[in-house]
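Possible regression after last week's pipeline update?

I re-ran a chain I had predicted before the update to compare outputs. Posting the input and the new output here so someone can diff against the archived version. Not blocking, just want to make sure nothing changed silently.
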Amino acid sequence: WPSFTQPIQPNAIKYEKDTSFGMVRVEVMCNTCDAHLGHVFPDGPEPSGLRYCVNSESIILEKEV
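New output (post-update):
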């Protein structure tokens, strides 16, 4: 999964506790449509210390011009 250290806009996502599959994780969801985007883990690099693992289907890549 692609991973990031922060959301592009803090108010674009929301967080929910995910206890599926016998694990305890934090799910990241779209704040507008509630779509599942991925999970956030507390083992990322500084400065945030967070690692947002995002499903590639929820990412739109654009070419740099």
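Follow-up from reviewer: compared with the archived run. The domain at 3-56 is CATH 2.170.150.20 (Metal Binding Protein, Guanine Nucleotide Exchange Factor; Chain A). Marking as no regression found.
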